[in-house]
Please model this.
Amino acid sequence: MPPARDPLWRPALIVFVSNICIMVIELVASRLLAPVIGVSLYTWTSIIGVMLAGISLGNFIGGKLADRFASRRLLGLEFGLAGLGSLGVLAAMQAFGNDGLTFAATIPLFARMALFIAAIFGLPSIMLGLISPLVIKLSLLEMAGAGAKIGRIYAASALGSIVGTFATGFWLVSAIGTRPILLGAGALLIGMGALFGRWFRRDLLNAALAAGLALAAVFAIPAGWVASTCFYETDYFCIKVRDEDLDGKTWRVLVLDRLVHSYTALGDPTQLRYAYERVGAEVSEFLQDRDGAQRVFFIGGGGYTPAQVHRAPLPGGPHRRGRDRPDGDRDRLSPP
Model:
C-alpha cells in the first residue's frame, strides 16, 4: 500500500516522536553521566557535540539508504535499530560507565570526555538520525505540494525537540528517573518500528506486534540495568550516601553527583571535618557562653552536620566541638 493511502502513515507524527526521543536521550545523558564525570562546560559541550555529530552522520547515511531502498520495511528497521541503540545505553553504562575517564590518561581531558560519551551515546544518535531522510523520501513520492510537506515535517521535527526538552527537564526525570526513561524510549521506538514498518497487511496485526515487541523489550532488560545507582535522584543531583572509615572513625558521607557534600561522624556528630563548620561551631559556642542561651535557624540542610552539632551535648566541657580532629587531616573532596 502506498504511504499516502495508509491510514497509519503520518510523516509529521513520525518525525515528531523520533525527535522527542532524540532530546530525551540528550537530556538524560547529562543526568546519567553527572555522577560519573560531573557536570561542567566540557560535559555539556561533549554531549551536544556527540549527539549532533551522530545525528548528522545518521542523516547522511539515511539519505543514501532512502535513495536506494526507500520502503516502509526499511523505516521499521531504522526505528527498531534506534530502539536497540537506546537500550544499548543501559548496557554500556552497566559495562563501563562507572570507570569514568580513567582510560588513555595521556590524551587531553576534553578528548577523553568526548570519546567516553561517544562510546555510550554515539550509536543511538546515529540510528535516530537515519529516520528523517527516509520519512521525507516516502512523503515525496508524489511531488505535488513538496514544499508544504517538507515544511510540515521540519516543523513537526522542531516541535518534537521542544516537547522532548521540556517534558524531560521539567517532568520525566523527577517523575520516573533517568534509566526508566531510556527503557521507555527504547521500547517506544521498537514498537513504532513494528507499527510503521507494516510487516503485515492488517493494521490490527501490526499493532499487536508493536505492543508485543515493546513489552518484550521492557521485560528483557535486566532489572539491574534500570535500577538507579543513586540513593535518591532529584531534579538537581544524584544523591549517594556511603560509610567511610577514616582516622579510626566511621563517617557517613553525603555525595551530590560526584562531589562530597558533607561528613558526619557516626556516634559523635560533634566531630567536624571542614574548616568552615569548625569556625561556625566555635562562633556559636562563643555566643552561647556570652549570652547564656542561643537559638539557631538553619536554611538548607545538606547533611545536617551543623544542626547535629548544636543538638549534641558538649563532650568534655565547652569549647571542645571539632577540636580533637588531627591537624594532618586536611579538608578534601573525594570522588565516590
Q: What stands out?
A: The CA atoms of residues 65 and 103 lie 36 Å apart. Strands lie at 232-233, 238-246, 249-256, 259-265.
